[in-house]
Amino acid sequence: MHHRTKSVPSRRSRKNVFLLLFLTVLFGAPARAQKNQTASASPPKYDLKTEAKLKGTVQDLKLPPKGSEKEIAHLVLKNGADALDVYLCPQTFLADMGFSFSKGDEIALTGSRIKQGEADLILAREVVKGSDTLVLRDEKGSPVWGWHR
Predict the structure, then answer these.
(1) Is residue 69 domain-shared with residue 92, that is, in the same domain?
(2) Is 68 helix (H, G, I), strand (E, B) or coil?
(3) Whole-angstrom distance between the N-terminal and C-terminal Cα of the chain?
(4) C or N: which end of the chain has fewer Cβ atoms within 10 Å?
(5) Residue 17 has what pLDDT?
(6) In terms of Cα–Cα distance, which of 90, 101, 97, 96 is closest to 56?
(7) pLDDT of 16-74, one tens digit each?
(8) Is residue 44 a contact partner of residue 123, using CB atoms and an 8 Å limit?
(9) pTM here?
(10) How sure is the predictor about 135, in pLDDT bands with cuts at 50, 70 and 90?
(11) What is the rounded distance in angstroms from the CA atom of residue 75 to the CA atom of residue 89?
């Protein structure tokens, strides 16, 4: 007489499944967290659909701290009753171009109005001060300071 036996998963194969599941959770979580951090730390993107021309007075120039000169310099532009946060370029590029801003400078700029988290800001593409024009981004909004070095 021939008996049929049911196939019962062995303890070893169950342990392997649990081990695999544990490792997936263990190593998958940091990868997802890192991806989220990278996404939130990514630089803002220029949006041609929100491009506008503005004029105003420089209220403040905010430079990155010493040792962080490759970080973005930005200024506060007084435009009527509004104070707008304008992202320019890395401080090193500003210095290399021989361009500077002072409180009270009258400027005109072309830039993209965007939201970064809760903040409204403007990514400058071109800034005109007096007879000088500083081009920061090409016509598609891509930074030109990457080409510089």
Answers:
(1) yes
(2) coil
(3) 84
(4) N
(5) 53
(6) 101
(7) 555 554 545 445 544 444 444 444 456 788 999 999 999 999 999 998 888 887 889 99
(8) yes
(9) 0.68
(10) very high
(11) 10
Locate 11 and state its tokens: 């303890």
110's tokens = 């072309």
> Per-residue pLDDT averaged across 67-82, rounded?
89
Same domain for 55 and 36: no
DSSP 95-110: HHTT----TT-EEEEE
Buried b (16+ CB within 10 A) or exposed e, 58-87: beebebeeeeeeeebbbbbbeeeeeebebb
Length of the chain equals: 149
Type of residue at 139: E
The tally of domains found in the chain comes to 2
Give the residue numbers spanning the domain of 117: 48-148
Residue 28 shares a structural domain with residue 55 = no
61 lies in the same domain as 78 = yes
Give the model's confidence band at 1: pLDDT under 50 very low, under 70 low, under 90 confident, else very high. Answer: low
Q: Is 15 helix (H, G, I), strand (E, B) or coil?
A: helix
Indicate the SS3 state at residue 143. strand
Q: What is the CATH number of the domain that holds 139?
A: 2.40.50.140
In terms of domains, do 35 and 55 share one?
no
Compute the distance between CA of residue 95 and CA of residue 105 in angstroms, rounded to an integer: 17
